[in-house]
Amino acid sequence: MASLEELRAERIKKLQRLRDNGIDPYPVDSRVDTEITDAILRFDELSSQAQKKVVMGGRVMTLRGQGAILFFNFNDGTGVFQGMLKEDESGKEIFDLFSETVDIGDFVELEGSLFTTKRGEKTILISAWRMLAKSLRPLPDKWHGLQDIEERFRRRYLDVLMSPEARERFIIRSKTQAFLRSFLIREGYLEVETPMLQPLAGGATAEPFKTRHNALDADLYLRIAPELYLKELLVGGFNKVFEMGRNFRNEGIDATHNPEFTMLEFYEAYADAQKQKTFVEELVRTAAKEIIGGYEITYDGHDIDIARPFEKISFFNLLKRDADIAEPESLSRDAYEKKARALDIDVKKTDAREKIMDYIYKKVSKPKLIQPTFITDYPAAFSPFAKRHGTETDLIDRFQLIIGGLEIVNAFSELNDPIEQRARYVEQDKKKKEGEGEVSPSDESYLEAMEYGMPPSSGVGLGVDRLVMLLSNAKNIREVILFPTLRQKT
Description:
- It is a single chain.
- By secondary structure, the chain is α+β, with helices and mostly antiparallel strands.
- The chain has 16 helices and 18 strands.
- The strands form four sheets. An eight-stranded mixed β-sheet has the order 6-10-11-18-17-16-15-14, sandwiched between helices. Strands 1-2-3-5-4 form a five-stranded mixed β-barrel. A three-stranded antiparallel β-sheet has the order 7-9-8, with no helix packed on it.
- A hairpin with a 4-residue loop joins strand 2 (about 70-75) and strand 3 (about 80-85).
- Helix 8 crosses helix 10 (about 275-290) and helix 11 (about 315-325) crosses helix 13 (about 355-365).
């Protein structure tokens, strides 16, 4: 078997032959006037006109010769079609140049008439052709059998070209993002943009990426969340705002985490978490119907019913049920650490009590939450921005939505008391001094905005990548991000 370099050298010779014949193998223009989908839809009309010529184009995917006849399939991104070149129809010079210079992977322009073969296959009979782009590397013939899965992610262009499943997954992603945007706009939300480079990485408890702006002589951070800027717009009188875009968190990589990911955040004045729970349920249910055509989802071997009312359970009741903790509300940090270690969970000395709770929940509860489930009533320490429960001051008015073991949504009634917000910031700053990396630092600019008066409101963060995972039955977040973060090859 010839090596890659030998195959590449052979293709370069063919490239040179085209140039020696006065042919530009990478022309500026293209005369393609008919897409494959259009040719299929209008085939009867186009093929009935005997003198009608169409110009099609695309990448050659297969080649097979039968003496003075060549058959090949080509793909223009909208579909696959068959081409046929006959020496007695096109002439020997045109036929020979095609057969001697065209390889699988080349982009070609094809002029000819449409007809149906004896086997009933729609075909273009070629009278003239041009090279549009000569490929120098052969397409992989065993792409599905790759042992190194990361190679699919590194060369995503080949993944979506060679794998119909991968291609369909990203079509689902595009449809999902378009749906989310249109759904919110239809509900009266205004789409806005907030900074990705921020002087403080606030709005969530996560470790940020840090960079330096030379002209400003200042450190900046890639945003971990757009939350604070969006809530400042509530202060400014925009009652419904949303943003869908990238967030960046300097955290580990696993099946549901990538350092660069897409979030949808939306905020509504004069609303609370209870109202948003109803809204989120409608949004997710409508998304399933619009994007995959129904309410039954198969994910990781489980049948999930989106149609029925979503289940609800409190955070502490989950720990009682799944971690066998009788009184999780009153258990000390050290007791939680002991419980975590018994469950083979690694705990750092700097980990706060609520973080250890979260470790335990993610180990024993989250994987069991297959049907859509709202988790409610979190301890106050879980979020520095969530409003406390009216009746239970140790709890916050927050919920998460879990489907198929995936955290899809995080939402809460927003804290709008600037005095309490400052006190919460003090707690966060103390944690940072004690070595905690994932904190939201004090933000005087945001506190100043709050002091002008922020209406009662609720906010929702929806993980777009995870929703796409659910809708496309992908087990790893890197399967639904076109170019995920990977370790560099040496």
